[in-house]
Structures are given as C-alpha cells and as structure tokens.
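User: Structure please.
Assistant: Input sequence and predicted structure:
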Amino acid sequence: MATKDSTAATRAALLKAAGEEFAAYGLAGARVDRIAERAGVNKERIYGHFGTKEMLFDAVVTDAINDLTEQIAMPSDPVEYVAKLTDYYREHPQLVRLLMWEALNFRGPDLPGFEARAQRCGKKAESLARGLGREVSPRSPGCSTRSPGSRCGRR
C-alpha cells in the first residue's frame, strides 16, 4: 500500500511541477530537468510514469481539463455557467496558457483526445442552447470541424 501511495504522490508532484513548467515555457521550452527538480524526484521518474515529455504534456493538459470539467458542471443556466467559467479561468490562469501552448503544437484531429473534447464541447453547446431556449443544431457535436468563425450550435 505504501508503494501505491508513493507512486501516486510522485505522479501528482510531477503533474503539478510539469503544469507550472509547461505553462511558463510551453512544450518546446520546458525542461525535464527543471520539472524533476520542482517535483523533488529523479528525472527518470518522468519517463517511468509518462514515457515522453510530450506524453507528460498531454497528461498535464488532460488533468487540467478534467479539473475544469469537475469544477464546472454541465450548464443549465447560461448566465451562471459563464460566471463560473470566468471565475475558474481567473483562478486558474495556467489552464489558458497550457491550452495556448497546446494550440501552437497541435492542429485539429492531431490533437490528443480531440474526439472526446469535441463531444464534451458539443454537449455543453447543446445544454447552453437549451438554456437559452434555442434550437440545437445537429452539427453542434461536430463544431470542431467547421471554420473558426462559424456559429456552431445556433441557428
């Protein structure tokens, strides 16, 4: 049991340290030596837990998005949802930086977890449309495939 706790603590320390490093320097600028030092572990633990620096980055972004999803429930009241989302981003500026670094390194369907994110966003768009009393577009779940300026989820 102590080994499991130790492994989980090491993983958590690495994710926290890597989140700070990646938010500050991006994927290309981040250094595993600095991450390991911040986490208080040998850098080989990074490779043991995550495989590569890129896979660690993916884990950090996934962890951050999962935290956002857990903290901000599926919207029913659009105004309350936007207020909560704004507060979350204000309290977690690291998430915005991570997503911006990610956008510089990955494009469209090449993005790790692209389909799951598109589905999650589609569900939120549908929920927001219902909350606003608008018809839900059948293309909402696939908004990610439309042009950036499109009005996904609305008619």
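Residues 2-29 form the longest helix (28 residues).
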